Amino acid sequence: MASRLIQVGPNEAENEIELSLRQTFEFLGPNLRPPFSLAIPKPDEYLQLNRAILYGVLCEPHFAKTHIKHLHAIVTDGYAFFVTLLVKIIHELYPKLVHSAKIQLIWVTKQMTDVLAIGFDALLVSLLRQIVGGDFSDANLWLCFELAGLFLDKWNCILEGEPLVLSSALYAYLRLLADHCRLSSNVMLEELKRSEIDLCVKIMKEEFHLCLKIGRDLIRLLQDLVHIPEFRAIWKDLVINPSQFNYPGFSDISQLYCLRTSSKYILLRITPEMESQLRFLLTHVKLGHQKRHQMWFSRKFLCGPDRETLIVDIVRFICCAHHPPNEIIQSDVLPRWAVIGWLLKSCRINYIEANVKLSLFYDWLFFDERVDSVMNIEPAMLLMVHSIHRYTDMTHTLLEFLLLLLDHYDMNRKDIILKGVSSSFRVLVEKGVIHSLDVLTSCTVLAPVLKEGLRKLLLSVK
Amino acid sequence: MLLLKDIVPAAQNNIDTKFILLEKGRVTTEGQNKTCLALVADETAAVHFQLWGDECDAFETGDIINLTSGIFSYQRNSLVLRAGKRGKVEKVGEFTMAYVETPNMSEIRWIPDPNNSKKYIQDSVISLHSRIFPPMP
After folding, report:
1. How high is the mean pLDDT of chain A?
2. Could you give the CA distance from residue A154 to residue A296 in angstroms, rounded to a whole number?
3. pLDDT (0 to 100) of residue A205
4. Which whole-number Å values give the CA distances from A89 to A5, A82, A133, in the listed order?
5. How does pLDDT run across B96-120, given as a tens digit for each residue?
6. Any chain A CB within 8 A of the CB of B89?
7. Contact A351/B at CB under 8 A
8. Region A343-358: what's the mean pLDDT?
9. Nearest by CB to A10, which of B54, B94, B96?
10. A274-330 pLDDT, tens per residue?
11. 3-class secondary structure, A123
12. A386 secondary structure, DSSP code
């Protein structure tokens, strides 16, 4: 008897994906046990068999090996359909899966990696996205641990088949480590941290060219880890001794600054469920009517002692990965800057608030209109401008932070940052995001020292 | 499936609709059974919904709920939507549904249709918003 795939509450509707898989599995029942038919299945039978085998692997752990042998025997598409189904299940059902099905999912992912199944990299990415930031529950740490182990154990396969997925693993684990290293530890967490550090260090030392693909956010994440000896050493090399990485053409950390980070990395720290709720908020909810949806969002994702750290990733997501079309921008839908303002105000811990502001301004620091999008820097500008009258503190704290970054973010490369920030202001005006900077420089409620700082900054590049 | 703006009071289980749960009132006990008044809404209207028995704990605000064969009728002078004995409520999702809080179908005065005494038609609006669950400031 197969177990259930997901947990369903007493008043919850049957899930259609599960239902269709289960029905296929039950319908094909006897065909899923040896001796297997030697006949070549017709195309639609092939797809049905894939569905049934998948359900069997996840829900009948004691027959999993038989099912996978069956799959190996019939496969004609490089496992592409099977892997697509797995990705779909992870995307839509992972949080609801019963634990035994999660264990099976990791097992079958290893099998798919071994055979270099078509799309196994997407499979690994979809699992990485299910690790919830700031969640220290056993189930979540278990997933971190299993995946880190998988990347280390299957290193050679991955390097041979889809090496680029290692850069995704690096992004995810550098970010997770920042949380894991901050918490007072226990034995399980110690072991997890060890394996996460080993994985990240191995990728950075052995496959540095893959790390470069991440772009500037790699630096943002590494900065949070310099208190860990292994990363302090890597950091020193990056700043002082880039030739250590043995990668021809890499001679200065600023080369990373110039590379805009693709949103595919940013999405790694946002679960699909969070993504769909955030996108809904920013496409369907009207400004002035957002309170309940915001409340529900925080209840689900931000409640709990260590969850606040997630706000850093959400703000990065909103700036880099959610760019609404003009129809939305011109409508009465809740704008991105308003959501970011709300998130910033929900920060209670100072260092997290600072990290949130850094993630809001990060693309300003290195902005180059040839590679960067004005949409990445727009929310910070609009948040400053729209807060001036009702929430002057917000404008103050943001502008102050920006000026602080200018002087202190990278003392040896101030010219780069100055160029980035001043280009940001210029492009924001040119593209009509704001009509003129007078709205800040001539604003009567803004502190004179900030206005002076801003004026100096704008003059210095003219 | 009906939109909430189109529901009309009637003494039959004839309403299939979908809405999002906005607010729950206090759970009270009526005889052997728990009940709980709630505010629910879709993109077109809001209405008071009565949760009954286990339903009171099974749903939380933000849940998207499917109602099949529900009934919209008077209970002690107030107009509520509920599943009733023959209807069914099921959670089908959460969060991703837009809503309005006005009109509230429970805050409308209905009168018998002069052309068909078995039917109700809208007479006047008693209150734009729910008087039990006032809109959030």
Report:
1. 95
2. 39
3. 96
4. 10, 11, 21
5. 999 999 999 999 999 999 999 889 9
6. yes
7. no
8. 96
9. B54
10. 999 999 999 999 999 999 999 999 999 999 888 999 999 999 999 999 999 999 999
11. helix
12. H
Mean pLDDT (whole number) for A373-391: 97
Q: Using an 8 Å Cβ cutoff, are A130 and A94 in contact?
A: yes
Q: Which residue of B has its CA nearest to A8?
A: B91
Please give the residue that has the higher pLDDT: either A3 or A399.
A399
Token pair 């002082």 is found at: A240
The pLDDT, as a whole number, for residue A184 is 66
The superfamily CATH assigns to domain B4-125 is Nucleic acid-binding proteins (2.40.50.140)
Q: Which residue of chain B has the CA closest to A10? A: B58
* Burial classification of residue A259, based on how many CB atoms lie within 10 Å of its CB (0-12 exposed, 13-18 middle, 19 or more buried): middle
Q: Which of residues 255-284 of A touch B (CB under 8 A)?
A: 276-277, 280, 284
Domains of chain B, residue spans: 4-125
The overall average pLDDT reported for chain B is 95
Please state the ipTM of this predicted complex: 0.95
A2: pLDDT strictly greater than 70: no
DSSP chain B: -B-GGG----SS--EEEEEEEEEEEEEEEETTEEEEEEEEE-SS-EEEEEEETTHHHH--TTEEEEEEEEEEEEETTEEEEE-TTT-EEEEEEES-------SBGGGEEEEEETTEEEEEEEEEES-SS-SSSPPP-
Residue B22 touches partner A, C-beta closer than 8 Å = yes
Minimum-distance CB partner of A11 among B22, B55, B96: B55
Interface probe, candidates B22, B66, B95, B130, chain A, greatest A C-beta count within 10 A: B95
Q: What's the pLDDT tens digit per position in A164-201? A: 999 999 999 999 999 999 876 678 899 999 999 999 99
Nearest to B92 among A13, A286, A293 (CB): A13
> Does the beta carbon of A408 lie under 8 angstroms from any beta carbon of chain B?
no
Residues 6+ apart with CB under 8 A from B80: B37, B47, B48, B49, B50, B72, B73, B106
Size of interface A-B (CB pairs under 8 A): 41
* DSSP character at residue A333: B
Calculate how close chain A gets to B135, using CA atoms only, in Å: 10
Q: How far apart are the first and last CA of chain A?
A: 75
Asked if residue A1 has pLDDT above 80, the reply is no
Best B16, B42, B60, B90 residue to mutate vs chain A (most A CBs within 10 Å)? B90
Q: What is the pLDDT of residue A255?
A: 96
